[in-house]
Amino acid sequence: MWLVDSSRIIDWMRRGRSPVRILRPFVLAGQTVTCSIVRVEVLRGIVNSAAHAEMTSLFDAIPEEPVDTEIGRQASALAWTLDRKGRVLPVSDLIIACCALRARARLVTLDPHFESVPGLRIVKELPDLLFDAPAPSP
Predict the structure, then answer these.
(1) Considering 17, 23, 67, 97, which has the largest number of Cβ atoms within 10 A of its Cβ?
(2) Residue 61, exposed/middle/buried by CB under 10 A (0-12, 13-18, 19+)?
(3) Alpha helices in the chain (DSSP H)
(4) Residue of 110, 101, 130, 124 whose CA lies nearest to 24
(5) pLDDT tens digits for 79-91?
(6) Nearest CA-CA partner of 89 in 120, 66, 67, 111
(7) Chain Cα centroid distance, residue 8
(8) Are 97 and 112 in contact (CB under 8 A)?
(9) Are 48 and 16 in contact (CB under 8 A)?
(10) What pTM value is reported for the model?
(11) Which domains does the chain have, with CATH numbers?
């Protein structure tokens, strides 16, 4: 299972790569989960309405780990523990981390904050990005 953080999605978009094309095979295989925080962080920055609609449809197709009372409790406990160690993470990152942990998902991220979270499995890329490669010429 994979949870793709906004830092990774935004980086793909800035480099002209389509998150929809990259994620489609993982979504179709039921290998992705998301979090409402990631949805908000990505969608708020998209200026083009067609791109916004496409990304909204993508997020709608990905099961969402709910940000509920239990996630709030877990994020609070994690924040307290990390703060005592001098590692202060943004609340949004704490919630994303707790969603990934609960879903037993690997977090695909470029954000170094997540490295402080015990037990969180972090990668910078999804495996086998050949899905996003252009089709070979005949």
Answers:
(1) 97
(2) middle
(3) 6-14, 19-28, 36-43, 49-61, 69-84, 91-103
(4) 130
(5) 999 999 999 999 9
(6) 111
(7) 7
(8) no
(9) no
(10) 0.86
(11) 2-126 (3.40.50.1010)
